[in-house]
TrEMBL record:
Recorded metabolic or biological pathway in which this protein acts: Cell wall biogenesis; peptidoglycan biosynthesis
Annotated protein name in UniProt: Penicillin-binding protein
Species per Swiss-Prot/TrEMBL record: Hymenobacter negativus
Lineage, uppermost ranks: Bacteria, Pseudomonadati, Bacteroidota, Cytophagia, Cytophagales
Transmembrane regions listed in the UniProt entry: 28-49
Keyword Protease: yes
Annotated Pfam families: Transgly, Transpeptidase
Length: 799
């Protein structure tokens, strides 16, 4: 056998050389080190990339300034001049309180439930994070966020749209980026704030449901208490809702809220916040709420709220502030005590007047909506209904279906309505929309405003009977003919153009010829009694007794165009027709707000002060941002202004003055007190007015129906001296009795300079008080002309 030689076999095509196999572990290790290095670098660099929003990939993170001065949305608060909080404006209702004003058990319950190692970590609880990861793998839902992380998310809205970068729109990646921001922000917060400060910020910023943000609002919303008075079971409810403010809201999901509360109580037991026996007893108790949700505009319903909103909104637009977010403190000129006195006086009088009004029309056997002949207007309610938004909505819904529309208008249901019969002014009645409208049309309405004439500060504003049921504001929004309260502007025009209070004009029938729209016209104004004394009256006496014939003659002498000009000078802003009847208050509609403004010019030495509702605005820390000082400008000479106050005192001091019903209010007349004023009544007694002044205050009152066709039909019930004047009398009695307000009896100020015109011409031969004259309303021969088919000037229609 031949010897065989052994030779190395060739490597197969599928195997690697031994040298290559030996080098592979080395390469793998190298790649591992590279990967490890990359991870380390990424770990070190990634936070920097996120915090700097590298290439706009990660979105904005809180800046150093944001961290040191966090801007939390906070409700703006409205305070009266005497420091009473009467309302708030907010999107997120939040009123921060210090930690010392919070119940200790609340803080312990929060830590036990949300972050048991709160005092041990520096913003991130790694143990909780790892536990959360393993829980997620097992399909369990368990959060790993610390209180500080939750604060970061809530305080800086890290997950909102504005904070997203390009990566924020990629699922999973967006969550990782957001979590990273929360961790980074939490660590920064821990560096800059103490644990106590973090707890305070957290409890003051987190949402508790029912539009309650912050523990103070939450405690009030759910339990009508304060944070420092929360009982353990109440604190457990509020801590429990933090996990899901909607799902665990005790008002709307009581069973879920109860289960969640008991979970919190168990956590409190584990943390030994309370003894186990006490926890067991608390878990057996039901959740007892005292629930009250604050609206975005919270506080008592008041008629001046819209005026404040408009004013402050305009100010915010010009200064870059936000009334619903910035936690402003808005201080009003309104005095809460005077406001209460005004509301009470108006309600007392209107309740009695409504009873008289109802009896008056019940005895006549008809509804109070009547034409100039006193006949009830047919289909009045249906006509009025067709003007409402609710009717228009129903008509559109039941288009071409008149029977269904009629059924909807007559469908009865229970509804809460206004009434004078109960102290809370409401009751529930079953009625249809048409019934409801007819019910409300029976009510007389009123508006009242009081102002300090020297500063323009509005001290009281009552726009109606009850804002819950009557939203229409009869102080500024409503405008009606002023009747005889407009006459002083005629006498103002005269005094500023050479006349004196002692000049005389005879009370006699007069005919005034004028041209309207190119046509010759004739006007024969009447006194309401159709009687003329023939007395050559002083201007003061004529204005005090509100004599139409004298006012009409004086208007012709000074020029009706000039009367309109002077009325606008002193404060009337509504359009006025320059026609002969302007002096009788029938040339345009005006508001209580305008009339008070205009009359105040007389008292303020001829300076017109812009009416003010706001005195100052502070930031959330109490720093004054802006002070609103009086804005005044001279409208008329000081001598003319003083003479006008003297003329207006004539209503009380001249024999037969129309203000003399004020003698029936004895508490007005201590220490030889002086009061001036003017009554006013319009045709058919549709409007009753009283403008009353003391040495300190100017007040305007209007009374009338919602529509001009709703009114009394005689002077004994419907003239301004009997409808509006008593409200002023009652109000001023209450003001004088309230010694804390500081308003005292006394004389009007003496003129600062010598009065050059003769003014002292009171008739001493007649007693100071006698039966007051009926307020001579803006009545003339129009009704006679209308009844006889005569031509009535266009400018004098509709009075």
């Amino acid at each position: 056998m031949a010897d065989l030689k052994t030779t190395p076999s060739a490597p197969s095509s599928g195997s690697k050389p031994k040298a290559s196999r030996r080098r592979w572990p080395v390469r793998l290790a190298s790649w591992a080190w590279v990967l490890f290095g990359f991870v380390v670098i990424l770990f070190l660099v990634y936070p920097f990339l996120v915090s700097t929003n590298f290439m706009f990939l990660f979105g904005k993170s809180p800046s150093l300034s944001d961290l040191e001065n966090p801007k939390v949305e906070q409700a703006s608060e409205i305070y009266t001049s005497d420091g009473v909080l009467i309302g708030k404006y907010f999107r997120e209702n939040r009123s921060p309180v210090p930690l010392s004003k919070m119940s200790p058990v609340l803080i312990k319950a929060l830590i036990a439930t949300e972050d048991v190692r709160f005092y041990e970590h520096s913003g991130i609880d790694l143990q909780a994070v790892i536990g959360g990861v393993f829980s997620s793998v097992r399909g369990e839902k368990r959060g790993g966020s610390t209180i500080t992380q939750q604060l970061a998310k809530n305080l800086y809205k890290i997950r909102r749209q504005q904070s997203r970068g390009a990566l924020g729109y990629i699922p999973v990646v967006s969550t990782i980026v957001a979590k990273t921001k929360e961790w980074l922000t939490a660590v920064d917060l821990e560096k800059r704030y103490t644990k106590e400060e973090i707890l305070r910020m957290y409890l003051n910023t987190v949402e508790y449901g029912s539009s309650a943000f912050g523990i103070k609002v939450a405690a009030k919303t759910f339990f009508n208490t304060s944070p420092d008075s929360l009982r353990p079971e109440q604190a457990a409810v509020l801590v429990g809702v933090l996990n899901n403010p909607t799902a665990y809201n005790p008002k709307f999901h009581p069973a879920a809220a109860l289960r969640r509360r008991n979970v919190v109580l168990d956590r409190m037991a584990q943390a030994k916040v309370l003894p186990a026996a006490e926890i067991k007893a608390l878990k057996a108790t039901p959740i007892v709420l005292d629930y009250h949700v604050e609206k975005h505009i919270d506080g008592p319903d008041t008629y001046f709220r819209s005026a404040i909103s408009q004013y402050v909104d305009a100010w915010c637009d010009s200064t870059g502030h936000d009334m619903y977010r910035d936690g402003l403190k808005i201080y009003l000129t309104i005095d809460s005590r005077m406001q209460a006195h005004a509301e009470q006086a108006l309600h007392e009088r209107m309740k009695a007047l409504q009873r008289s009004f109802d009896n008056f029309w019940r005895n006549k056997g008809k509804n109070p909506w009547v034409d100039e002949h006193g006949d009830e207007i047919p289909d009045f309610i249906l006509t009025q209904m067709k003007r409402t938004e609710s009717y228009k909505s129903l008509a559109n819904h039941y288009k071409n279906q008149p029977q269904r529309l009629d059924s909807a208008l007559n469908a009865k249901r229970a509804m809460k309505v206004f009434t004078w019969k109960h102290d809370d002014n409401d009751t529930t009645l079953v009625m249809s929309p048409l019934d409801s409208l007819a019910y409300y049309k029976h009510f007389l309405q009123s508006g009242m405003m009081t102002m300090d004439p020297f500063t323009g500060q509005i001290k009281a504003w009552v726009g109606g009977l009850d804002y819950r049921f009557f939203k229409y504001d009869h102080v500024k929004q409503g405008k009606r003919q002023a009747g005889s309260t407009f006459k002083p502007f005629v006498y103002l025009t005269a005094l500023d153009n050479g006349y004196t209070p002692c000049d005389r004009i005879r009370d006699q029938r007069v005919t005034i010829n004028y041209v309207e729209n190119g046509k010759p016209m004739e006007w024969k104004p009447d006194n309401v009694t159709r009687e003329y004394t023939g007395i050559n009256m002083t201007l003061r006496h004529a204005m005090a007794r509100s004599v139409n014939s004298v006012t009409a003659q004086l208007t012709e002498k000074v020029g009706w165009e000039n009367v309109a000009k002077y009325a606008h000078k002193v404060g009337i802003t509504s359009p006025l027709l320059p026609v002969p009847s302007i002096g009788l208050g029938s040339a345009g509609d005006v508001s209580v707000y305008e009339m008070v403004d205009a009359y105040s010019t007389f008292m303020n030495s001829g300076f017109r002060s812009d009416p003010r509702l706001v005195t100052r605005i502070e930031d959330r820390n109490g720093n004054v941002i802006q002070q609103f000082d009086p804005v005044q400008h001279r409208a008329i000479p000081a001598e003319t202004a003083w003479l006008m106050t003297y003329m207006l005192r004539g209503g009380m001091e001249e024999p037969g003055g129309t203000s003399q019903a004020l003698w029936d209010y004895p508490d007005l007349w201590h220490n030889d007190n002086q009061i001036g004023g003017k009554t006013g009544t319009t045709s058919n007694y549709s409007d009753g007015w009283y403008m009353g002044m003391t040495k300190d205050l100017m007040t305007g009152v209007w009374v009338g129906g919602e529509d001009r066709s709703i009114h009394f039909t005689g002077s004994q019930q419907g003239e301004g001296g009997r409808t509006a004047l008593p409200i002023f009398g009652k109000f001023m009695e209450k003001v004088y009795k309230d010694k804390d307000l500081g308003y005292t009896y006394g004389h009007f100020p003496q003129p600062a300079n010598k009065i050059s015109k003769k003014y002292s011409c009171i008739s001493e031969s007649e007693p100071r008080r006698r039966a007051e004259a009926v307020d001579t309303i803006a009545a003339d021969n129009l009704l006679e002309q209308m009844n006889s088919g005569g031509k009535v000037p266009d400018s004098l229609r509709g009075r």
